[in-house]
Amino acid sequence: MISSKYTIREQNEAKILTVIIDKNEVSRAELSTLTGLNKASVSAITKKLIEDEFISETRIGDASNVGGRKPIMLTFNRQSALVIAFDLGYNYIEAMLAYIDGTIIDSIRKRRIDVSAENVVGQMKEIIDHFLSIQPKTPHGIIGLTAAIHGQVHNNVIHFTPYYNLDKGNLWEELQAICDFPVFLENEANLAALGEYTFSSHYQNLVSISIHSGIGAGIVENGDLQVGYRGRAGEIGHSILYPHGKECPCGNLGCLEQYASNKATYQEYAKQEGLDYVNSDTLQQAFQEKNDRAIALLEKNAELLSIGINNIIMMYDPEIVVINSSLYRKIPEMIPFINAHIKNRFSKDVLIRNTFLEKSATLYGAFANSAQNFLNIKKLKLIKEEIVSLHE
Ligand SMILES: [Zn+2]
Question: Closest by alpha carbon to 20, among 62, 59, 71, 55?
């Protein structure tokens, strides 16, 4: 049973909390000015937020120009609650426990395993039990679990997962039955975009391209994640690159991801070089050794990918496109390969960069999703300045 602490936060309470989070430190008088709420309302709401341990009084601020009493400053209690994030790949599971502001407490990685509808709940339960056993004491405890699914998801229902069978059964129901906090399932690329939006950028219009076995885009427009009517928005991996091309599990011929996904690139390189197993490390090494065949393959990958990126820029007009791919992280020199192809008069000003969140953008997005729900704040920004400043 989910307790009443998860009921929707009242609108004005969420409004005040949003300003406190954005400003980092703010007085009651400033809150009144910034929210348009009168002083009595601000006083009553901040009193409740302090009692609920969402915010604290930090220090005495400076008096205003016109004199009067020095104000008491308020700040968001960034460690008042905990969130759990999962990334469920077809051959790996990653999970993290963090404070609500994305400060990581513990992480678990299982690699080169087969993830299926039959074994996924058992594997997740083991990890959840471990997190429960080590969780630090906080006022609200664990307030949400969000799991990333590599496929089409809408309202926690998995509709189509081309590379594993999580679309069989009802994963959400099974997980909710073993968790006494809210559980959410969301598309992996959507979560990566939400992670970039919330933790790594000041932009309001952002597209994140996730490239693994498939290719998906997460779209944030004016701070809102765009998922479409059925959760299919941004499925650019299934936009057609070559008419009558290779068969795709989606039913199309010639889908972008059959040519430009990391999986397709690894397979191509393995075939070309007669290798059994190729991953991003293999190609990184070949690139560093200036292997001409590897460089040509990587340039080709960037060229094909840039067609998909160009198309999505034409549709959504983002300020920034963030690339989430182990290949592009290992070989950042591939970003200029993309830039060389994104040069028409509409797209050439769009910033294209690698993720700052390294391999964890999806997990950060999962934190953000649970936090947004618990705080009832859309457009939540919890920028990790220490991460952003590392890259800028
Ligand atoms: Zn397809």
Answer: 55
Domains and CATH numbers, the chain: 4-76 (1.10.10.10), 82-194+361-391 (3.30.420.40), 202-355 (3.30.420.40)
Cα 229 to middle of ligand 1, angstroms: 19
- Strand arrangement, sheet containing 351-354: 224-226, 215-221, 206-211, 320-325, 351-354
Output the CA 248–ligand 1 centroid distance in Å: 5
Neighbours of ion ligand 1 (CB under 5 A): 238, 248, 250, 252, 255
Distance from the alpha carbon of residue 239 to the mean position of ligand 1, in angstroms: 7
Average the pLDDT over 349-362 and give the result: 94
Give 99-137 pLDDT, tens digit per residue.
Answer: 999 999 999 999 989 999 999 999 999 999 999 999 999
Distance 349 CA to ligand 1 centre (A): 29
The DSSP call for residue 380 is -
What is the Å distance from ligand 1's center to 388 Cα?
A: 34
Work out the percent of the chain whose per-residue pLDDT is above 90: 85
